[in-house]
Amino acid sequence: MATDTASDTGTATANEPIYVDGQSQLDDVVAERDVVLTDFYADWCGPCQMLEPIVETLAAETGATVAKVDVDANQQLAASYGVRGVPTLVLFAGGEQVEKVVGLQGEDQLRTLIETYVESR
Question: Which GO CC annotations does the UniProt entry carry (predicted)?
Answer without folding.
Answer: cytoplasm
